[in-house]
Amino acid sequence: MDAPRMDASFEPYGRLLRMLMPSVGSVVVHDGFANLVWSSDEGDLSDSPEIVRETISNALSEGSEFAGIVRTLDADRVVYSFAVRGEQIELLGIVSMIARLSGKQTEARPLNYVRPLIQPALECLRREMLLRSQLGSREQDLGGRERDLSLMLEMSSRKPDLASDADEFGLILKTGLDHMHCALAALWVPEKDIVLTLTRSGQPMSPAALQRAQQHLMAWMLLQQRTIVVNRISNSVTNGAAPYKILACPVRHPSGRVMGVLALFNPPSAEDFDSHQTRIAELLAKKATVIIQSHYDPSTGLMTRHAFERQVAELLSASVSPLTHCILYLDIDRLHLINETFGMHVGDDVIALVAESMAKALPRGALSARISGDRLAALVPNAGMDAAATVAENIRVAVAAVVPRAGQGSFEVSASVGVAPIGRSDNALAHALATAEIACKAAKDRGRNRVEVFQDSDQSIIRRHTDILVIGQLRDALDSDKFRLDAQPILPLRGNYGRPRFELLIRMLGDHGEIIPPAKFLSSAERYQLMPAIDRWVVRRACELLGAHNKSISEESARFAINLSGQSLQDEAFLQFVIDQIQKSELPPNVLCFELTETATIGNLAKAQDFMRTLQNLGCQFALDDFGTGVSSLAYLKDLPVNYLKIDGSFVRDSVQNARSDSMIKAIAQLAKVMCMETIAEYVETDNLRVRMTELGVDYGQGFAMGKSQPLEELLNELAIYEATVSTWDLADGTTLPAGAQSADQAYGACVRRL
Q: What angle do CA 317, 366, 215 make, to 5 degrees?
C-alpha cells in the first residue's frame, strides 16, 4: 500500500535530506502527537509505530533542539529519527529517515555523525513546522462555531473568475448579512476609493445616505485602532440620525495601520452583537485585507496590472457613452543610474514617490496601476486626447517636483509620459497600452521629461526605434568596441577583510558616450542570439586588461568573476576560445571565476559539466548565480564542480521582513559549508542587510553596502598602487600600517572598500 501523502509540500525537504545523506531511501514526517503528516513513496513506519513514540519520549526527557534516536529495522535497514522543536521548546514533529546498509557499512552510524550532515534540512523543516503550528493554533482559537464560515471563505477564494473586485467585496458583505442576520453591511477604504454598501434586500444604499456614518466611523477607527461594538443606543440621538447597533472592524494595511472599516448595522430591536459575531466580522475584515493586498501593489499602493485590466474591462463593458477614455503610460527616466549610484533601495523609494505624485494628480474616477518595475499606467475616463494630455502634463510637473534624498544630498527625478486613446477593438485595453507605451518611448527618444501623444504618423518611426535600433546599436558596439567593463567588489562579511573579489559588469556606450546598462540590451541580445558574441567580447577584453597587469595580479591579490550565458555553453567553439584567450594573455587562470546562472547550468547540464571541469583543470573557479530560484538545482548540485553559490538577490532583499527568505538563506549557507563551498549574497544594499547576512553565515556580500562598481581600467591602476603599498607594509613587518589596521590584509581590504 502506498504511503499516505497528506501534504505533498514536504517533498522538497525529503529530496534535500536524501541529497545530504545519499544512503537514505525514504523519509517520514509525523506531527508532535505521532500522527503521520507525510511520507515518501519508498516506504513508511506503519509497521514500527513504537519508533516514533520512543523518539517523542526521548525528546521530552532530552532538551536539545534535534534530539534523536537510531534503531535497526532489519539486517539491511536502519532508521534515524529526530525531534523538531519550536521557539518555546515545544515539540513540532518527528522526522525519520530510513537508510540502507551496504558495502562495508554493517552498522548504523552514530547520531553525532548524522545530525550535522542533515542539520540544514532540519533547520528548514523546523521553520516550516513552526509556521504551520502557529497557523493551526489560530484556526483552533476560532472554535467550532466558525467552521461553516471558514468553509464558505475557502469556497469563495476558489472563484477567481468573478467579474470585478466589487463582486469579491460584495460577497464579503453578503456573507456578513447572511451569517449574522444584519440589516446593513458596509465596506469603506477611502485611499482605494472603495465605498460599498449592501442591505438585507440585496440592494446597495446610496453612498450619500451613509456619508456621515462613514466619516464618523473612519475617524473613530483611526482613533481606537481596534474593533468597535456599539450595542447600547443613546436616548440623546438627535438630528434625525437613525439609531443603529454597530459592529465595526478595522481593515489594515500590511504595515498594520488602519486604512478602512468593515461595518455591520442592526436596528435597536435586534439582538446584541456577541463575541462570536465579532470574530466572524474580524475574519471578514481580514478577508477584505487579503483581497486588497492581492489587487494592489504593496510598494506603491497602486493596482496591480491584473486588477487594473479587470477594472478597465468592467468599465469599458458598462460604458454606453460615446465619450473617449484615454490611457497614460509613465516611465521613470534614468532609474538605472539612480539604482547604480545610490542603491536599489533608493530606487524603490523613488518609484513609490512618483506613484504617489501620479495618484494625487489624477482626476476623480481615474484608475492607476503599476504595470512593472518603474512603469506606471492610468486610465482617464470620459476625457478626450487634449484633456488627457493636460492630465499627463500635470503628472509630469508633479514628478519633477519630487526631491528624494540619499545620504546627505538629493537628486532630480523626471518621467516620460505617453498618451493614447482607447478604441473599440476586441482587445481595446491591450492595444491602448501598447500605443501609449510607443508614445512614451517617443518621449524618451526626444529628450525625456516630456509628454507625447500617440499619432499614427509616428508609428513606423517608433517601431523602428523599439524593434531595430537596439539591435543595430548592439551590432555597431560589437564591431567598434563600444563597450566598457566595470568591476563591483565582492567582499568578505566576517573576520578580517581578507582578499577581495570583483564581478565584471558590461556597459554599452551610446553615440555620445553615455552609459547604456545591460537591462536595456541584454534581453534583445538573447532574443536575437547575440549573447555568444557579447560573451566573447567580455572574455577577450577582460583577459587583455587583466593580462596587462599579470605581473601584479594573482589569486592572493584579487579574483575576477565573468558572467557567461547559456547560449555560449551551446557554442562548441566557445570553450577553446576561452582557453586561447587565457593563454594568450599569460594571465594566471586562478584569478578568474566564471559565473553561470542556475537556469542555464541545469538546462545545459552535460555541456556545463564538461565546460567547468576543463577550465577548473587550468585553475579557474566557478560560481552558480541566482541560486535558490530553482528547486531542481538541489538534485544536480552534487554533480556540479561549483566553488561558490551566489544567493539570489530576491531572497536577500526580502530577508529582513520575510522569515521564509531568511530561513532559506541560512539553509543555503549551511548546505554550502557541508559541500565545501562558499556563499555570496547579492543585493546587499543596506547596512542592516550586511549585518543580517553575516549573522546567517554567508561568506561574501555584493551590493551597494559593500561597494559601488567602477571602470575596470581605473580599478586595476588603483589596485596596483594599493598592492604596492600593502607589500611595503608587509616588508616593514607592520610598522607602517595605518592606524587601526591589525594586519596587511585588513589594510588592503580597507583600501579596496575605499575604491
A: 110
Distance, CA of 593 to CA of 642 (rounded, Å): 10
Cα four-point dihedral sign 466, 472, 475, 479: negative
Cα radius of gyration rounded to whole Å, the chain: 31
Residue 532 confidence (pLDDT) above 60: yes
Picking from 637, 506, 611, the residue whose alpha carbon sits closest to that of residue 561 is: 506
C-alpha pair distances (Å), 222 with each of 195, 225, 259, 260, 441:
17, 5, 8, 9, 43
State how beta strands 245-252 and 228-230 pair: antiparallel
pLDDT tens across 86-99, in order?
876 778 889 999 99
Q: How confident is the model at residue 556 (pLDDT cuts 50, 70, 90)?
A: low
The 184-189 sheet, strands edge to edge: 194-199, 184-189, 258-266, 245-252, 228-230
Which run of H or E residues covers position 220? helix 211-224
Cβ 377 vs Cβ 371: under 8 Å: yes
- Whole-number Å distance between alpha carbons of 194 and 205: 14
- What CA dihedral angle connects 659, 661, 662 and 663, to 10 degrees? 90
Residue among 709, 753, 703, 686 nearest 349 (CA): 686
CA angle 190, 192, 196 (to 5 degrees): 65
Cell of 328: 497614460
User: Could you tell me if 176 and 280 are in contact, meaning their C-beta atoms sit under 8 angstroms apart?
Assistant: yes
pTM score over 0.70: no
Q: Are 492 and 699 in contact (CB under 8 A)?
A: yes
Q: Is there a contact between 661 and 651 (Cβ–Cβ < 8 Å)?
A: yes
With 0-12 / 13-18 / 19 or more C-beta atoms within 10 angstroms meaning exposed / middle / buried, residue 286 is middle
* Residues 22, 28, 34, 37, CA torsion sign: positive
Continuous segment of H or E residues that includes residue 478: helix 470-480
Ordered alpha helix ranges (H), 548-648: 566-570, 574-585, 598-603, 605-618, 633-637
Q: How far is the C-alpha of 586 from the C-alpha of 395, rounded, in Å?
A: 57
Which DSSP state fits 464?
I
For residues 261 and 248, the answer to whether their CB atoms sit within 8 Å is yes
Q: How far apart are the first and last CA of the chain?
A: 65
Count Cα neighbours of 416 within 13 Å in the Cβ-side half-sphere: 19
The residue length of the chain stands at 755
Q: Is 72 helix (H, G, I), strand (E, B) or coil?
A: strand
For residue 22, how far is the Cα from the chain centroid?
Answer: 32
Average pLDDT, the chain: 81
Please classify residue 603 by burial: count the beta carbons closer than 10 Å to its beta carbon, then call 0-12 exposed, 13-18 middle and 19+ buried: middle
pLDDT digits (tens, 9 = 90+) for 204-247: 676 666 788 888 888 888 888 889 898 876 655 444 445 788 99
Look at residue 603 and give its three-state secondary structure. helix
* CA–CA distance, 428 with 433 (Å, rounded to integer): 9
Residue 195 phi, psi (nearest 5): -135, 100
Residue type, 425: S
Rounded CA gap, 697 and 734, in Å? 30
In angstroms, the CA 56 to CA 661 distance is 29
CB 270 within 8 A of CB 183: yes
Report the alpha-carbon distance of residue 142 to residue 149 in Å, rounded. Answer: 10
C-alpha cell at 547: 593580462
Q: What span, in angstroms and rounded, lies between the C-alpha atoms of 164 and 312?
A: 10
Residue 626 parent element (H or E):
strand 621-627
Single-letter amino acid code for the residue at 664: M
Q: Which H or E element spans position 485?
A: strand 483-492
All three cell numbers of 433: 497600452
Give Cβ neighbours of residue 407 (< 8 Å, ≥ 6 apart).
342
Quote the DSSP letter at residue 465: I
